[in-house]
Amino acid sequence: IHNMSENTIEEIGTAYMAGMNEQVSLHFETIIELRLTMAESIAHIAAGNGDSGYGTREEIEYGARARHFLCAALYSPDGGIEMIFGDPVELNHPEPFLESLRNGERKAASAGSGGDGVILFGVPCEYPMSDGNGSLAIVVGLSTKYMDEVLFLDSDKSLSYSFVIRKDGSYVVGNGGDSHKNYFDRLTSIFDGKDVEAGICIEQLRAAMNAGEDYSAVLKNGGSRRHIYCTSLPYCEWYLVTVLPFEGLDNAISGMGSRWLGIVYAASFAVVAMLLYIFFRYLKLFRDQVSELK
Prior knowledge:
By secondary structure, this protein is an alpha+beta fold. The chain is built from seven helices and eleven strands.
């Protein structure tokens, strides 16, 4: 029964995780598309109205602030950043971001700004820079804290929790309260000293990310189990990792199993008691008949 319960929990967890990961991924895509559309509207402000020339930097700043962005900048064809307003930002992994914008794509990327994380949204846009060259794109930014709150609104009420990570395991959003700076370090700590098992899991996760495939696995360590599911996210070089601890489901199904066993035992006792009652009634009847014959 215990093994059947474990298998049932894992089957339920797999179905739940696939649906939950898809839901969070679609929510992420909707938010990123909305913000990229806002960035495009700011690019239209920068481009101006044709004959009237480019929009002013003051107009760009006003448009960005009105859409609640923390910063705006011009992005040069060689990857240089010229701030229009806000604290200076430095991209964490600039190469994929630059390549996508050179291909005319919209792109999201993470950056650092004064020790705080920023999510940058870049859209192609040509605008005069201070060195006399034209920009490749315009970028606007939001804090990672804001994105964390918007992406995982119902995390406190959910059975699962999620992170957004890069290929190297570093966090983008969702690591609030975690002492580990890298998700791979977190996985290693879950295995509690079992370095071989941890290494196998991390290598499988890395291989799936490099191949652009989803990764799903049930991690077991002692009496604890958790299901992790990883999938790539659109418009960026990031991956969504959703984790479902089985403790809650284990307790619920174990409780159901205990109640079911109680019902079975009670029913079995009732059947045995009824059979004994019938047996003794017939035994008494038989003895009475023997006494009459004597």
